[in-house]
Amino acid sequence: MEVISMAGWDLKKGELRFIPVCDDQLWARFNFVFSEASAKRNSYKFGLIKSILDNLLNCTIVNDQFVLFYHDIFAKFTENYWNLVLKYHLRQMRPDGKSQYSKIEYILLQAQADFQIPEQIPFDSLDDALKETIIKQVQRECKKYVIGALYSDLEGIVYGFDLKQDYLVLHPAAYPFLMKYKMELERLNYYAWAKFLETVNDDAMLVRLLDKLELALPQRKNLDIYRQVLYQEFEEQYCFYCGKKLTGASHVDHFIPWSFVKEDKLWNFVMSCPSCNSKKSNKLPTQTFVEKLEARNDHAVLISDFSRKQFESYRQGLISHLWQYAHDAGFREVLADICVK
What we know:
- The chain has 14 helices and 7 strands.
- By secondary structure, the protein is an alpha+beta fold.
- 35% of the residues are buried.
């Protein structure tokens, strides 16, 4: 099948090419995006790739297809650029004599001025209504420039889209590919993003650039709110791993490590004693616990609206699939006798 010549950034619609696609073909397209052969006036393609990777757990299945809503994508897009623009003052666009800043920079700088936001304030700490106002403006102004541009580079074998709709649709082969190689794609995207930023920023701004990129993107949050929710919804009074009654200190644990999922989801949380949580650390539990957590989640009768919203992206078999994706990505498995009596 011949690849149709695409207009790129000004595309309003791009059909998903339902053709057999292998990992090598997908790698070839992403490597093209990361290369200098891919035209880039700004860093949007890197920002969109990161936002898609950050939202893989928010995929919704519609008519047997994986879809990602634009609102979720551009919520991450906004958060990912927040520190880069407002805290680290890193320029995101090549000088062209027409405009000094990219749209995302204009929007964030204007919001900072209009609402008198200190530059050290994390995006997540803003009032919900203010966050939503900024996200909607970013989505409205930026999606028309970046969705089509990245689609064109990827030749329609990763996602299809229509800007008149609320979401884009992933190719059936793209979702497992993105999950399987999530961490490697993130690293390559960081390096390509950093290389681009080196061409548009002064040397003084480039100190510890990769650190700035990683620190600017989603960070771990305080999980205290989930302790009471886990007790309320699942009556988790015992350590999920060793079964001992939780007295005094107890930990909320990311069952699939946070460093892989980088999302806080109730269906991925369990209560743990400090000893088991320390031993598990950044490793995968054994398959026995996968089955235990899936049984808990599959039969959950959720009480609160908060919990039901947290479970919107959950589906049967998800924990097993994530466990396998993380295992394939190189996460070590906890020794079988660590977390049992």
